[in-house]
Design goal:
This protein is α+β, with helices and mostly antiparallel strands. It has helices at about 10-25, 35-50, 85-105, 105-130, 230-240, 280-285, 300-305, 310-320, and strands at about 55, 75-80, 155-170, 180-190, 195-200, 205-215, 220-230, 245-255, 255-260, 270-275, 290-295. The chain has two domains: about 40-130, no CATH class; about 155-320, Hypothetical Protein Pfu-838710-001 (Beta Barrel), CATH 2.40.320.10. Helices cover about 30% and strands about 25% of the residues. Helix 3 (about 85-105) packs antiparallel against helix 4 (about 105-130).
């Protein structure tokens, strides 16, 4: 067995031979030098593609099948700056159709309706050109600053929040001794942002910024949630923003996290179960001590509770047969 060393010159010659074989299969007149008239015709074609409403995408060497009735032609690519003019043309066509129908010009109506269909299609094409293309922003770094809190996952993520929310009887904090943590939420005014401080019984403190984007669906999917864990310095900066506050104590009572609310929301006890799949949602059986499920009652979401008055809360609870001591 022998070896053959391939040098760049050999590769170049092989490629040239390949091109020569391909050219031998094509008509020789395709490789002639174009005349001045042919060059002028080519340049003239693309010059004539520039129209008042946009650009004509008609191929070189083809005729205009619509006889320059451009608004009817699917090959017209409208310019975004001409949107108002297209709307004006459409409105004018509507007026002309109404006039033709009123005067009995049946033959004119048909032609005008064809033009109207084209005019109404052009703004839709314009909208397609305005749709932003997705931009890849790269992966989020999992590196954290030295003063960032120690958490199971200190990165940022965006997930579908799947929760079932349940009302419990307000029986104080007896029986709710498992892993308590005091939570103070600051709902930043005019935004969908929530700044949370969670103080654990063992002295740990968790600080995070959350954005919740609701979805118009019933059931366990509450929306998209994005969490970003913060350092104390970052938290202090964000805590200076105007916000409405809500406080509660959370207990871990598997499979629920149970929130016992304070202040004007005293008497409200909510249990929440979180899931990652639809199968888990369907398989969940609420514990016997739960009074009612309020997953689809938006009044018991944090963003609504933080705005609720004491009287409003008592009225909502009364609808479910709960009357806490006042």
């Amino acid at each position: 067995m022998g070896y053959n060393a391939i040098y760049p010159a050999d590769a170049i010659e092989a490629h040239r031979a390949f091109i020569a074989r391909r050219r031998s299969l094509r008509l020789s007149e395709e490789y002639r030098t174009p005349t001045n008239d042919e060059w002028d015709a080519c340049l003239s074609h693309f010059e004539k593609c520039k129209l008042s409403l946009g650009t004509c995408a008609r191929a070189f060497g083809t005729s205009c099948i619509h006889e320059h009735a451009c608004v009817r032609c699917p090959l017209l690519r409208p310019e975004p700056s001409q949107r108002d003019r297209l709307i004006e043309i459409r409105n004018n066509l509507l007026d002309r159709i109404a006039e033709a129908q009123r005067e009995g010009w049946i033959g004119a109506v048909e032609g005008l309706e064809i033009s109207l269909a084209g005019a109404e299609d052009k703004p839709a094409q314009h909208n397609e050109t305005l749709k932003p293309s997705p931009t890849h922003l790269g992966c989020l770094s999992s590196a954290r600053s030295p003063d960032a809190p120690t958490t199971p996952d200190h990165r940022t993520w965006n997930l579908a929040e799947m929760v079932r929310r349940l009302l419990r009887w307000p029986r104080g904090k007896r029986g709710l001794r498992s892993c308590p943590r005091v939570i103070t939420d600051r709902y930043v005014n005019g935004t969908r942002l929530r700044l949370r401080r969670a103080d654990f019984a063992d002295g740990r403190c968790e600080l995070k910024l959350t954005q919740k984007v609701p979805v118009l669906l019933s059931g366990a999917i509450q929306g998209l949630i994005t969490n970003t864990y913060l350092s104390p310095a970052e938290y202090d900066v964000l805590a200076s923003l105007p916000a409405t506050m809500l406080s509660k104590t959370r207990f871990s009572v598997p499979p629920l996290g149970v929130d016992v609310f304070d202040g004007r929301l005293q008497g409200l006890v909510l249990g929440e179960a979180e899931f990652t799949t639809d199968e888990e949602v369907q398989a969940f059986v609420p514990p016997a001590e739960c009074v009612a499920e309020v997953t689809d009652d938006a009044r018991f979401a944090g963003g609504c509770l933080v705005q609720a008055s004491r009287q409003e809360l008592l009225g909502w609870l009364a609808e479910y047969g709960i009357r806490p001591q006042t």
